[in-house]
């Protein structure tokens, strides 16, 4: 609390000083606050949904594991000597079903790895690896086949349920050996030792149970011995889990060889299991008295249904249960959704089987009446003699089979019951102790299957034992309550800017401040991630009138004000409302070889660095800004220190390892100047790169923002692209383009050979201007894909960016994107054979899919013309051939006009045609819907395709709940199809020689003064005098109209903004204009195709405040005033809240920037001959591309026209069925080409839909895993709130100087 004299001092400091009062007044309390919180994500609902999904997943894992075990045991039971359910003649069929349960996982894994080996390639393992894998799998497969086919059918059901827990015996022994070899003989060694002893004790009790007082002692010894020996062999299944800990160092290469040649190793494993189990089955059937001919003999319907039901349920429950177990681990719900359900399932199967037996025993006792009717009498009279009241249903027969086995064992005797119970307890306790290490597992947010489990093949016959024993064994589990140590990661957020508005700058700055709150630099809990934000400001300087000096333009001034405004927003909860805004952290300004730099320390100690580029000193445009920050951050900041260490004599091999690790763990988040994102979106992208080392880049879901019909169209278009096309690329192969507005790149990928070095290639050919500069993000991804890196898409990582709101701006943007996309796709597919060999994520089938996509995009104008033809045929009832001719006339005329009209006129014509096409589309759509409703059939090709598209789009929208409302914009999307896919294609191809940027052109500078009014004769005369004085370089000129710039004079009272802009070399006065694009932009030929010579000054000169304490010369109308330096100007603009400290770059960094500029970033020279040559080459490229593009469309139209002429001869006749599926004796005739294209397109959409379902499922799993881990750390809450954890003492923040009254 501030009181008395101190309050008065503070008041005087805040109100009395003129500079202080310029930015805060005590009465100015009304506020404007932009959106800071993540209001779009319903975190409370997501937490509830996460809890419900985890509970549901756990319940399903329990139920499916129980179903898998129960159905397998029932198959074992009916394969035994009893004949209540299945007669003896069909026992071979039951054994075949059991064999299917054993080998089904091997078949599935074999299919998967054959696909990998054929289409992605695989390395061959060494002969030692092959021998080891085959020999071990031979033993495992033999034990599994003997146990399931020969031993278990002759045991009772309770023993079969419990003996499977003994397959952990060798796992326990291996754990003891691993810990002993590692010297870890501590208390954790007791669990595996006790486990092995308990399982062996269970075996001893089991042998005593079956050998004591047995009628056929020899046969009983054989059966029980086979069971014990087989379980020991089966326990070898998980030998690879302990191999790295048991191998001597000289043989450690074996495990690496197995990982390197995983596909071939899996094929060997699966083939061995199939062969060995098949041999055991083939030998055992005749040995057991059966015959293989019985497999083909007629089967009773009841028996067939029973076996099919049990086998089908067993296979399905095993597959789904295994997958859901993986899902539970990946959702970071290991304990509640994986371990606990599986343990409970291994216990619940016992009461599940015994309950019906004793229920029917009770029913039999009630039927017999009161008396001593025990289990022994029940076995004697009801079961063996057949006098039971159970009925003849399939379930009752299964219960009788289970009861018969229990009766044969003689469990009515207390001693045998005791032995069986003790053996079961020993086995289960031993299994529990052998898998106790799984409770100490610490999972990361996103895990691959090979990180979770050693053996990729699950065990369908004993699912829960296989899953628990297959979990990776760790000799050094992390201590409880301590975080898992993670590798250090470095994240650089790099945004490129060029003439963004004040509100657009706010978006990116607020996003960076959000991240600062989410990942504080000094937070010890999350300090494994170091973050810096860098903004590279293109074209940040202007030329000062008269003097010709380069000063920061109004966009830079806006950026400084935005940073101060956002800084204050994130400090609101710390400030005293009676003392006004808090002073900001000290900020550093530097002069650099490329312009200037502003360094800001954010509230939580992360750094924000704004690089102001002067285009007269360094090359501008987005690609060169990216090269600038990649060389600076990766070359200078990352690699240079290792070179210095090498010079100091450190070990080169160690340096190389550390450098490669840091490259892999350094990420660059590429952003645009108007991107808005939240911290979870970045973390989800980091997860992908952190867990998958072959991923070089990952992109998120981009949401266009803005208002108006053009933006509405783009919202649905973006949604459709991400829902279907992007997900299909991710699932079938990999994403081809990671957009530069929000993408995360791995440093090692960017620094790979033929990527960043090739990315610096200047455009020397016409195609380079299209491929390199018009779509730099797609070209960078093309280079990464060609080097074998994978690009991924994460649908839960949301980012928002401004979209063009005007028709002209939209067309110009797509005019730049369309040729670039086509050029990069053709470049990528041109080397498809090499690409498939180099990149393991891209297969030949995926390349065929992409070829069809590219071909479809080329033929899209002709396809739209055919669609318009169908509309005209339907609406006007004219011949299809005439309709085709009429449909091609408007686009053909527009194509011709585009060669002669200016670009703006072309867009105007396209806008008029778009409106007309939209009206036709609306009428046609209503007519089609009406015809589908009134027609006798919906099974025509048109109806099927229409219904398919509508269902796919609607279901896709419903599967994206937060975006479901975008389906409303689907109507606008349909109406705009001719404009977006016909007219825009023509405009883009014909104007591909226009390589200007297309967007943000002609926008006035933020905060710039309006254009000056027309000048009268007196002002013109004064301007002429000013030019003469400037050309004469008169320092003491008596002209009363001049103001000194850097040593000259100015008229008293005239501000700098009142002066006309004069070229540095003299000439006519010019009004200040905003640069419409990059300097010396080539815009092509024709009336609009000229080289636009841009002025050195690139933005309007804002109204600048007069310098304080300006001096007037006595006795003279002139007053000498020194022109402000750009750093001084920013200081004045920022007031006293910000303390700017001017610093200097280190000498070596200055040399780095000079060398980098000289080698890669020197501004392009003004070479008129070169420009004319480039224009000519671009025109020639345009003409050739236009001919090829539209000639292909013409061929498509001519082929369709010809087939329509030959409709009676060459056509496909499809039988016409009504809605009741009754043939109407009529046929629908369709041209073959149209039918095949329509069928292929429908199949393509259906394929994309299923890939979307797959991708959506795994996106949900990843997001739930993120929510579960971040809730434990408390980061989700902190991401929605930027309030400080501790209050701040105002006496420590405000320091008032009695003399000056300023805040520091």
Structure, explained:
- The chain has 1304 residues and is of the alpha/beta class.
- It is globular, with a radius of gyration of 39 Å.
- It starts with a helix and ends in an 11-residue tail after the last helix.
Spell out the key features of this protein:
1304 residues, alpha/beta, 45 helices, 57% helix, disordered C terminus
Give a short synopsis of this structure.
This protein has 45 helices and 19 strands. It is of the alpha/beta class and 1304 residues long.
**Pairing-aware structural class of the strands and helices?**
alpha/beta
- Structural shape: globular
Work out the radius of gyration.
Answer: 39 Å
Lateral arrangement of strands in the main beta sheet = 9-12-10-11-8-1-2-7-6-5-17
- Major β-sheet annotation: 11 strands, mixed
Mean pLDDT, all residues: 79
Q: Summarize the amount of helix as a percent range.
A: 55-70%
Quantity of strands, as a count: 19
> What is the straight-line distance between the termini?
19 Å
Taken as a percent bin, the fraction of beta residues is 5-15%
Count helical runs: 45
Quaternary status: single chain
Low-confidence stretches: 9-23, 1002-1012, 1030-1123, 1277-1304
């Amino acid at each position: 609390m501030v009181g008395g004299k101190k309050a008065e001092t503070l008041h005087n400091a805040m109100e009395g000083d003129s500079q202080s009062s310029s930015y805060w007044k005590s009465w100015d309390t009304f506020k404007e606050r932009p959106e800071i919180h993540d209001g779009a994500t319903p975190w409370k609902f997501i937490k509830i949904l996460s809890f419900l999904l985890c509970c549901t997943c756990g319940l399903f894992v329990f139920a499916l594991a129980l179903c898998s075990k129960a159905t397998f045991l029932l198959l074992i039971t009916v394969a035994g000597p009893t004949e209540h359910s299945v007669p003896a003649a069909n026992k071979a069929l039951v054994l075949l079903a059991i064999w299917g349960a054993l080998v089904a996982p091997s078949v599935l894994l074999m299919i998967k790895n054959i696909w990998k080996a054929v289409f992605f390639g695989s390395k061959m393992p060494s002969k030692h690896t092959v021998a080891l894998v085959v020999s071990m799998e031979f033993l495992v497969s033999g034990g599994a086949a003997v146990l399931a086919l020969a031993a278990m059918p002759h045991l009772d059901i309770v023993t079969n349920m419990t003996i499977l827990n003994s397959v952990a015996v060798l796992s326990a022994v291996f754990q003891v050996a691993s810990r002993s070899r590692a010297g870890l003989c501590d208390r954790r060694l007791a669990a595996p030792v006790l486990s092995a002893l308990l399982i062996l004790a269970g075996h001893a009790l089991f042998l005593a149970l079956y050998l004591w007082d047995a009628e056929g002692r020899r046969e009983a010894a054989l059966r029980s011995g086979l069971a014990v020996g087989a379980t020991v062999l089966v326990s070898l299944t998980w030998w690879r889990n302990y191999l790295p800990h048991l191998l001597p160092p000289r043989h450690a290469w074996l495990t690496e060889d197995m990982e390197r040649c995983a596909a071939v190793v899996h094929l060997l494993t699966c083939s061995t299991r199939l062969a060995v189990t098949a041999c055991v089955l083939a030998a055992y059937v005749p040995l057991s008295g059966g015959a293989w001919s019985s497999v083909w003999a007629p089967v009773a319907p009841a028996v067939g249904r029973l076996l099919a039901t049990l086998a089908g349920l067993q296979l399905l429950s095993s597959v789904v249960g295994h997958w859901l177990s993986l899902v539970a681990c990946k959702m970071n719900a290991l304990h509640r959704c994986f371990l606990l359900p599986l343990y409970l399932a291994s216990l619940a199967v016992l009461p599940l089987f015994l309950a019906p037996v004793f229920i029917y025993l009770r029913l039999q006792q009630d039927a017999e009446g009161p008396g001593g009717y025990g289990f022994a009498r029940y076995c004697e009279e009801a079961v063996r003699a057949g006098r039971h009241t159970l009925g003849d249903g399939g379930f009752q027969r299964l219960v009788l089979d289970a009861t018969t086995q229990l009766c044969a064992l003689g469990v009515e005797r207390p001693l045998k019951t005791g032995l069986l119970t003790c053996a079961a307890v020993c086995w289960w306790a031993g299994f529990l102790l052998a898998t106790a290490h799984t409770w100490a597992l610490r999972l990361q947010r996103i895990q691959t299957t090979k990180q979770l489990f050693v053996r990729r093949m699950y065990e369908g016959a004993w699912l829960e034992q296989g899953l628990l024993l297959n979990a990776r064994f760790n000799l050094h589990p992390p201590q409880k309550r301590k975080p898992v140590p993670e590798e250090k990661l470095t994240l650089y957020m790099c945004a490129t800017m060029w003439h963004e508005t004040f509100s657009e700058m706010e978006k990116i700055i607020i996003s960076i401040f959000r991240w600062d709150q989410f990942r504080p630099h000094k937070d010890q809990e999350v300090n494994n991630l170091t973050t810096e934000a860098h903004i590279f400001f293109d074209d940040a300087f202007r030329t000062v009138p008269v003097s010709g000096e380069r000063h920061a333009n109004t966009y830079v001034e806006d950026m400084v004000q935005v940073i101060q405004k956002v800084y204050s927003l994130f400090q609101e909860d710390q400030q005293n409302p009676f003392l006004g805004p808090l002073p900001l952290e000290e900020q550093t300004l530097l002069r650099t070889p490329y312009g200037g730099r502003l360094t800001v320390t954010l509230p939580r100690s992360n750094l924000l660095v704004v690089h102001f580029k002067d285009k007269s000193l360094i090359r501008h445009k987005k690609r060169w800004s990216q090269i600038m920050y990649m060389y600076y951050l990766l070359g200078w900041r990352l690699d240079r220190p290792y070179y210095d260490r090498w010079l100091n004599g450190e070990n080169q091999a160690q340096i190389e390892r550390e450098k490669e690790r840091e490259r892999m763990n350094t990420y660059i988040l590429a952003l645009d100047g108007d991107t808005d994102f939240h911290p979870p979106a970045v973390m989800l992208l980091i997860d992908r790169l952190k867990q998958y080392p072959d991923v070089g880049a990952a992109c998120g879901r981009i949401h266009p923002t803005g208002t108006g019909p053009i933006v509405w169209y783009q919202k649905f278009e973006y949604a459709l692209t991400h829902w279907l096309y992007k997900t299909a690329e991710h699932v079938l192969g990999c994403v081809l383009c990671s957009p530069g507005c929000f993408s995360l790149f791995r440093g090692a990928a960017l620094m790979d050979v033929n990527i960043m070095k090739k990315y610096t290639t200047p455009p020397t050919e016409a195609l380079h201007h299209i491929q390199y500069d018009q779509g730099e993000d797609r070209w960078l991804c093309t280079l990464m894909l060609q080097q074998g890196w994978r690009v991924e898409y994460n649908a839960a990582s949301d980012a928002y960016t401004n979209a063009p709101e005007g028709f002209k701006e939209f067309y110009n943007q797509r005019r730049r994107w369309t040729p670039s996309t086509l050029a990069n796709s053709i470049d990528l597919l041109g080397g498809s054979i090499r690409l498939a060999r180099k990149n393991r994520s891209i297969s030949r089938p995926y390349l065929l899919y992409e070829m069809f996509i590219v071909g479809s995009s080329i033929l899209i104008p002709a396809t739209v013309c055919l669609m318009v033809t169908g509309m005209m045929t339907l609406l006007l009832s004219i011949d299809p051939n005439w309709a085709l001719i009429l449909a091609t006339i408007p686009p053909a005329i527009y194509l011709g006009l585009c060669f002669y009209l200016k670009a703006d006129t072309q867009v105007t014509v396209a806008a008029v045609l778009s409106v007309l096409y939209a009206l036709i589309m609306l009428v046609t759509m209503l007519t089609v819907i009406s015809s589908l409703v009134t027609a006798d059939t919906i099974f025509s090709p048109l109806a099927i395709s229409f219904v398919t598209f509508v269902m796919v789009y609607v279901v896709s929208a419903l599967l994206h709940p937060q975006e479901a409302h975008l389906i409303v914009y689907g109507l606008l999307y349909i109406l705009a199809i001719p404009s977006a896919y016909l007219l825009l294609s023509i405009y883009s191809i014909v104007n591909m020689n226009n390589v200007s940027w297309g967007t943000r052109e002609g926008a006035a500078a933020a905060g710039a003064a309006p254009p000056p009014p027309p000048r009268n004769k007196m002002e013109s005369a004064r301007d002429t005098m000013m030019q003469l004085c400037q050309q004469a370089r008169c320092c003491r000129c008596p002209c009363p109209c001049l103001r000194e710039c850097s040593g000259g004079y100015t008229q008293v009272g005239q501000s700098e903004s009142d002066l006309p802009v004069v070229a540095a070399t003299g000439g006519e006065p010019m009004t200040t204009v905003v640069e419409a694009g990059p300097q010396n932009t080539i815009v092509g030929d024709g009336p609009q195709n000229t080289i636009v010579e841009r002025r050195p000054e690139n933005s309007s000169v804002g109204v600048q405040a007069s310098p304080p304490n300006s001096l007037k010369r006595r006795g003279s109308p002139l007053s000498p005033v020194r022109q402000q330096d750009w750093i001084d100007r920013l200081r004045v603009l920022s007031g006293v809240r910000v303390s700017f400290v001017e610093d200097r770059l280190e000498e070596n960094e200055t040399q780095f920037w000079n060398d980098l500029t000289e080698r890669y970033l020197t501004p392009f020279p003004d070479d008129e001959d070169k420009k004319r040559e480039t224009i000519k080459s671009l025109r020639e490229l345009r003409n050739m591309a236009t001919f090829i593009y539209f000639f292909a469309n013409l061929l498509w139209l001519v082929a369709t026209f010809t087939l329509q002429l030959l409709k009676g001869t060459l056509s496909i006749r499809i039988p016409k069925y009504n809605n009741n599926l009754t043939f109407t004796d009529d046929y629908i005739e369709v041209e073959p080409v149209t039918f095949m294209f329509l069928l292929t397109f429908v199949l393509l959409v259906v394929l994309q839909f299923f890939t979307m379902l797959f991708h959506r499922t795994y996106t949900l799993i990843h997001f739930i895993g993120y929510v579960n881990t971040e809730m434990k750390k408390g980061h989700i809450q902190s991401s929605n709130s930027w309030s400080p954890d501790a209050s701040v003492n105002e006496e420590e923040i405000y320091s008032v100087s009695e003399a000056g009254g300023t805040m520091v």
